[in-house]
Structure prediction request, 243 residues.
Amino acid sequence: MNKGTAVVTGGAAGIGQAYAQRLAADGFDIAVADMNDASTTRALVEATGRKFYSAAVNVSSPESTLQFSADVAAHLGPVTALVNNAGIYPWKSFAETDYEMWRKVMGVNLDGAFLMAKAFVPGMVERQHGRIVNVASSSLWLNVPDMTAYIASKGGVVGFTRALASELGKDGITVNVIAPGLTNTKSMHGTNEEIFDYLPKLQAIPRTIQPGDLVGVVSFLCSADSAFVTGQTIIADGGQARI
Ligand SMILES: NC(=O)c1ccc[n+]([C@@H]2O[C@H](COP(=O)([O-])OP(=O)(O)OC[C@H]3O[C@@H](n4cnc5c(N)ncnc54)[C@H](O)[C@@H]3O)[C@@H](O)[C@H]2O)c1
Prediction:
């Protein structure tokens, strides 16, 4: 069944790619907004029989996100789901975090969700239907050093979600958050490898989280079954953080 188009930001790699693949299997055509080439995601989506469109988009740019919404409408038609997954997570102490770095992290992680909502919510309001899933992180509820800008940005994502949900409920649009725990992606490896040894042991389900462990939550939040769930945060971290 065709469910319309789902937009996934940062869907060229990592967790976003897994969201795109799952939403395609669920029956959505997929549009990926990413700074990087999304051809691997294209192959995965097209293998499900769904249509795919991607463009080089910087989610922290008002012009780039607005242009993307026009391009998606032209290529794939109405957007029914928006997953604001693009994010960056530089491991920097507070002392090492200068204002430029702070603004960059806010620009992608928080402004990006705002700008993509600005670009796609008007169409959802017009059609009186939509699903928005923003991506935070379970680190927001945990003791994680060297991530001040990141954790602040993800706190902003939760606040933005709650506020936007309050405004859009009357228009048939839900807005929720998935907050993953430490997940096995290429970008997460390299800088702080030791966390993969000790963090999973603190989870109720004590193994490393794979992108595929997260996709069911996003699938539910984009589905008809979640029609009365809005403003909420679902932590998918194997049961470490509790809210
Ligand atoms: N991996 C984890 O352990 C983990 C844990 C909790 C939350 N998250 C969140 O999940 C999301 C995805 O994480 P990931 O590990 O898959 O990351 P990743 O680095 O593997 O993928 C992120 C994608 O976003 C794209 N991107 C970055 N800046 C962009 C911009 N300005 N405009 C458009 N695209 C941009 C990148 O090109 C990349 O393809 C992020 O929001 C991250 O904060 C990840």
Summary: Residues 5-236 form a domain with the Rossmann fold fold (CATH 3.40.50.720). The pocket of nicotinamide-adenine-dinucleotide is lined by residues 9-10, 12-16, 33-36, 57-60, 85-89, 108, 135, 137, 180, 182-183, 185-188 (CB under 6 Å). Helices lie at 14-26, 39-46, 62-76, 99-127, 148-168, 195-198, 215-221.
